[in-house]
Amino acid sequence: MIYQPPTALPRRLLDDEDMYRALTAHDFGAVFRIARERAGISYSKIAAECDIKPDRVGTLARGQGRITSFEKIVQIADALRVPGHLLGLAPRPWEADDAPAGTSSTENGPHVRRRTILQAATSTGLAAALPALHRPDPPRRITDTYIDRLRERTTRLRRLDDILGGGDTYRTYLSEVQYTKGLLRRASFTDGTRRRLTALLAEQAQQAGWAAFDGGRTKDAGSLYEESRDFARKAQDADLYGNSLAFLAYKTLADNRRTAVAFAEDSCATITARTPSSVRALLYERLAWACAVDNQPKSTELALDAAREALEGAQDGEPQPDWSAWVDRTELDIMTGRCWTELRRPLRAVPVLTDALNRYSDDHARDKALYLSWLADAYLTAGEVEQAAEKTGRALELATGVASIRPRQRIEPLLTKLRPHAALSTVRDALERAAD
User: Fold this and answer.
1) DSSP-based three-state secondary structure for 141
2) Is the pLDDT of residue 154 over 60?
3) pTM over 0.85
4) What is the rounded CA–CA span in Å between residue 310 and residue 336?
5) In angstroms, rounded to a whole number, what is the distance separating the alpha carbons of residues 190 and 176?
6) How many beta carbons lie within 10 A of that of residue 321, not counting itself?
7) Cβ 347 vs Cβ 297: under 8 Å
8) Measured between alpha carbons, how far is 280 from 260 in angstroms, rounded to an integer?
9) Could you give the angle at which helices 238-252 and 218-235 cross, rounded to 10 degrees?
């Protein structure tokens, strides 16, 4: 017989909206309070099963303090029989035996569950909610070791952009910028550590600028990109300086295409023999995009070729900065397809986009929704309305709940082009999904 702890939450309570919100926010005080009020589970039983002091359980239930230890969160999940996906954990060992036939712990899709959990964490203060992101206290004199720890934190925080939109992450990323600025004003360090900390600030400002851009804060994005450029120059970091120009190019495209191309060309001019391959590929692919939007097919193709050559020429074991390491063959194929879509070459765009998106995880919901919109656009250019409608519907599905303005900005023009074909069932389905 499978052991069932006396603190196991009834299934009806796990489905309760207040309980669900408390669990996904890791607000265990509220979890304990709801468990006692609605299921009659005493604080003393919770304390015994979770190995928490009884007075601590009561304090948490009154809204004082938080539980952030990974080990303790796992212990609570097992004691209260909370399925792992509700807390951002892998399925617990008891779930297979405990689940009724025909149910699944990932019923709504793992990428949706994970996104919901992280959105709850950012809304309550991500760094406080997730123990791995705790900011280390600064020493009296800033050391290289301390900067390394801050950089590791920046790297972990950057992973949020894989799942969430800028509307969720902007405050978190901006707070990192403000904290590092404060260190530069108040702390003491050698010239070398000051330069390293300034380079980290340039990196953080780029991430915050990207979140601002993604969340519709265009003016804030421009200011952060310009700050990043200045910090990278002060730090004498050519790679980050080039990337700041590439970001400015991306942001400027909507207002002045020629200026954007000039920014992108200047970013590529920073490339030297010492530039890491992923950085070279990133700068060249952003130049390709600027040229495509400006209707320069020859320059687009040359830039895409340079990006591909950079990736193919990467040496085994070559160190890559984390902020550019995401650029791989799949990403470059997607950019290639986007460029050919923008240049109205659907016969070239559709195969490369289709192949790349088959390799692209739904976990990256915002980005996959965006990339599907370019595939739908290419199908429309080719006159394949039903295929375009199917991809548009899929993009809408993935973009639901993502705190980014960009997917909808891309999808709305597609819906306008599809409306004259509403007699087709696939088009009608996409339009109905958009109206929900």
Assistant:
1) strand
2) yes
3) no
4) 15
5) 22
6) 17
7) no
8) 18
9) 160
Distance CA 199, CA 176 (A): 13
Block residue for tokens 């309980």 = 19
- pLDDT at residue number 250: 92
- pLDDT at res. 164: 85
Torsion sign over Cα 190, 192, 193, 198? positive
Do 278 and 314 touch, CB atoms closer than 8 A? Answer: yes
- Using a 10 angstrom Cβ sphere, with 0-12 exposed, 13-18 middle and 19 or more buried, the burial of residue 340 is buried
Cβ–Cβ contacts within 10 Å for residue 154, how many?
20
Among positive and negative, which fits the CA dihedral 160, 124, 120, 105?
positive
Identify the residue whose tokens are 């910028």. Answer: 177
Give the pLDDT confidence of 253-279 residue by residue, as tens digits.
989 999 999 999 999 999 999 999 999
Tokens representing 69? 């230890």
Could you tell me if 33 and 19 are in contact, meaning their C-beta atoms sit under 8 angstroms apart? no
Distances (CA, A) of 295 to 291, 339, 405: 6, 10, 25
In the DSSP assignment, the letter for residue 359 is T
pLDDT at 129 exceeding the cut of 50:
no
Give CA–CA dist 5/116, Å, rounded. Answer: 28
Give Cα separations from 127 to 45, 349, 364 (angstroms): 30, 41, 21
Q: Are the C-beta atoms of residues 252 and 262 closer than 8 Å to each other?
A: no
Provide the CA 232 distance to its chain's centre, in angstroms.
23
Q: What's the token pair of residue 156?
A: 């972990």
Residue type, 3: Y
Coil, helix or strand at residue 188: strand
How would residue 98 be classed by pLDDT, with cut points 50, 70 and 90? low
C-alpha–C-alpha distance, residues 382 and 45, integer Å:
65
* Short-list 413, 422, 383, CA closest to 395: 413
- Where would I find the H helices in 277-364? 277-293, 297-312, 329-342, 346-358
* Residue 331, token pair as written in the block: 């990403």
Percent of the chain exceeding pLDDT 70 equals 89
Angle at 281 between CA 276 and CA 282, to 5 degrees: 100
Buried b (16+ CB within 10 A) or exposed e, 368-407: bbbbbbbbbbbbbbbebbebbbbbbbbbbbbbeebbbbbb
